[in-house]
Amino acid sequence: MSRLLLLLVFALPCAVAAAPDPALAHARALLKSTILIDGHNDLPWEIREYEKAPMDVEAYDLRQHAAGDTDLARLKQGQVRAQFWSVFVPGEVKDGYAKTQLEQLDIARRMIARYPEAMELALSAVDVRRIAAKGKVASLLGMEGGHVLENSLGSLRAYYELGARYMTLTHNVTLDWADAALDEPRHHGLTPFGKEVVREMNRLGMLVDISHVSPEVMRDVLDVSAAPVIFSHSSAYALVDHARNVPDEILQRMAANGGVVMVTFVPPFVNRDAKAWSAGLEQQFKGVVSDAEMARLEKAYTAEHGPSPKATLRDVADHIDHIARVAGHDHVGIGGDFGGENNPAGLEDVSKYPELFAELIRRGWSDADLKKLAGENLLRTFAQAEQVARRLQKERAPSTATIAALDGKK
Fold first, then answer.
1. Residue 21 included in any domain
2. Where are any strands of DSSP class E within 185-295?
3. Within-domain flag for 1
4. Which member of 46, 69, 171, 376 is catalytic?
5. pLDDT per residue over 300-322, tens digit each?
6. Known catalytic residue: 187?
7. Is 147 assigned a catalytic role?
8. Are residues 99 and 125 in the same domain?
């Protein structure tokens, strides 16, 4: 074999590997022409818990390659043009809810203000379009867990004034007025005060987020809400029977409601093997509150059972496909829930959204439906909620209802 032929033989695999992926090129071009909105990213909590400098927005420098899965360069690479930053407060903490919520709102707002060349606070659907058109990430705030209200509608209004534009009704802990998906039910839906929370959110124009709630609460919210609702980060129960996912019967109601289910990337929610592994670990954690003890138990569990099985980008695409089929292409979006660990293979950080869209292109998704998924569905839902709020504000004053009056609780 001649030297030239040998060179050609060995060069061919490299040439093939370097060949451009037409689906990925298509995805990147499409995302230049639309607004990609992610419904849930826990970066403000990552900043709060930053080991080197807790709560220090300047020390957690997003202009550099950050310790987690989100920074400015990777947001740009992922073509993210709008983001709901989660101002999460753990429901398991038994006191200091309002203090922690105010601190999280402060961290998020300081983070956004620190990068004026790249981010701007968005408070409306019109803001999102205006800011995205300037090439910045339209930055919205989403509260996670109604426990921070401490049963006060006045608190709800104050948080709205501070910029919160959705509230996940519960986190992992059942409240005085709503059952959580991962806790024992006490009310089997919303209490009368819980229904008043939804009505007041409608009056404000704050999106009602029913990720994390029980199916009975989902049903009650869909019965009560005058505005479209969202799931900010959930996937399909029919594919993985995790309590945090959305049953088909609820998906079938989303078209009438007008809302959107934003598919999450959390491995136990999108992959059955990862869910089984995680369920076994959670059994080890029962009754344990110490972080150090949890770390020890997780290390021992991993040594015995091996590391968690990996979810993949294809798993996430399967959930998007399923929700689009059952709820309709007008009612599906993306809520990655970045800010954790063990992200799916192919979706390791916020730079990877084009790869997900490329997978859907290979599956035959049209450009029109991809644009709906990227952000048009959420923007429609948000604008409709704002329209409902303008009507309701003409019809009724802020609610002064209390949980004592409605539910007979102190």
1. no
2. 207-209, 230-234, 260-263
3. no
4. 171
5. 999 999 999 999 999 999 999 99
6. no
7. no
8. yes
